[in-house]
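Quick start: read one record
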Amino acid sequence: MIYLHQRALLRELFDAAVAAADPAHCLPHWLPEPPAGRIVIVGAGKAAAAMAATVEAHWRGDLERLSGIVVTRYGHGLPTQRIEVVEASHPAPDAAGQRGATRLLQAVHGLTADDLVLVLLSGGGSALLAAPMPGITLDEKRGVTKALLACGAGIGEINCVRKHLSAIKGGRLALAAQPARVLTLAISDVPGDDLSTIASGPTVPDPTTCADALEIVDRYGIALSSAARAALQDGRAETPKPGNPGFSRCESHIIATAQASLAAAAELARSRGVTPLVLGDAIEGEAREAARVLGGIARSCTAHGVPLAAPCVLLSGGETTVTVKGGGRGGRNAEFLLSLALALGGHPHISAIACDTDGIDGSEDNAGAMVLPDTPARAIAAEIDLRARLAQNDAFSVFSALGDLVVTGPTRTNVNDFRAILIDPAESLAKEE
C-alpha cells in the first residue's frame, strides 16, 4: 500500500463531513414541545429512519403518544419503537414507495388544529414518495425519472417535473394535513438549500409551474403520455403557490447542509496542519467538466501557490450530473474522479476523494473513490485505458480494479457530494510500502 498519509487524511475529511450531518448530532436541538393534541411523524429520504430513531430517543413527551410512518431507501432502515419504517426503491420509484406515500397521506388526514405533524425530510425523498397524480401510472413516473437522470438534467429540473406529476409533492402533503400545525425538519442535499426542492418540497409552496415542467421535458426530449401532457397543459397538475392560506400553519427548518459539512472537514484539515479552501457547496454541471476545472485550480496551487500554497486542500460540495452515453458502471463521484485522474496525469503532489455522503454513489454499493498520484501508472500496469473507460461511463470498474473504492455502507444521512483535493508539498510525499 502506498500514499498511506494521503489515503488516511482524505478519508478522515470525508468522515468528518458525514458526522456533521448525522441526525443524532443535528436533529435533537430542533424538536418541538409536545402539542396539546396528537403528534404524527411522517417523512421520507435516505436519512428518514435515522431521523425517526433520533426523534424517539430525544422526545420530551410521552413516547406512547407518538405515531407515524417514514419511507427510506432499501438497506437504510433502522429499528424504531413507535414510528414505522418502510423501505422502497431509489433513484427510480417502485410500488413499495407508492404504498408508503399513500399511507403518509392517510396518516395526516382527519387531524385537528391541536395536532402536530412533524415531517422529516432528506435527500432521496422525491423518489421514495411515489404518489402519481390521478391519471398518471407508476410506470410512467418511473420512466420519466430514469430518462431525466440519464440525460444530465439538474436536480431542480428533475424535481420540478416530479412535483407536477405527483399527488404528494410540491406542497400537497401540507395541504392534506390541514388544519393541523406542520413542522418540517429537513437535511438538505440540494445546491442552494431550497426547501421547495428538498424531497420535492411536499410541505412548502412551489414557485415552479406546469409551463416550467413542460419546457424541461421538451428540452430534454422526454416522452410523456397524452394524459400527463394534457394535465400539464391545462393546469390540472399545477401545484399550490406562495400565498396559499393552506401554508399558514406550516414551519420549516433546514437542520444540516453541505456547507456545514464542508466547514467540519475544513476544521479537521486545519487541525492536521493543512490549509483548507471551500470552493463552494453548490457546484453543479457535468462531473467530468467540473473535474477539469477543479484539477486546474489544484495544479495552480502546486505551480504558483495560488489560490493557496501547499499543504492545502480544496473542498467542495453540490451535485454534479452525468450524461450517460456508454454502457459502463459508476456514479457521478467516480466519473468526476476518473476525469480528474486524466486531467492531473499522475501529478506527484495531488490526491483526491469524491463521495456521496449517503454512502451510495449512483446505483453501486460504494460511496465514491480516491485518486492518488500513481493512479494512472497502476491503471497502465493493469491494462486499463482510462480515457476509453470514461467514454463508456465505466468509472466504477476502474476504481474497483485498482482497489480505490470507498465503501461505507449506508450512512443514513445525505448532504450530497463531498470532494476534497489534497495538495502536498514535495517533502511530504514519501511512499510507504
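The two ends are 5 Å apart (CA to CA).
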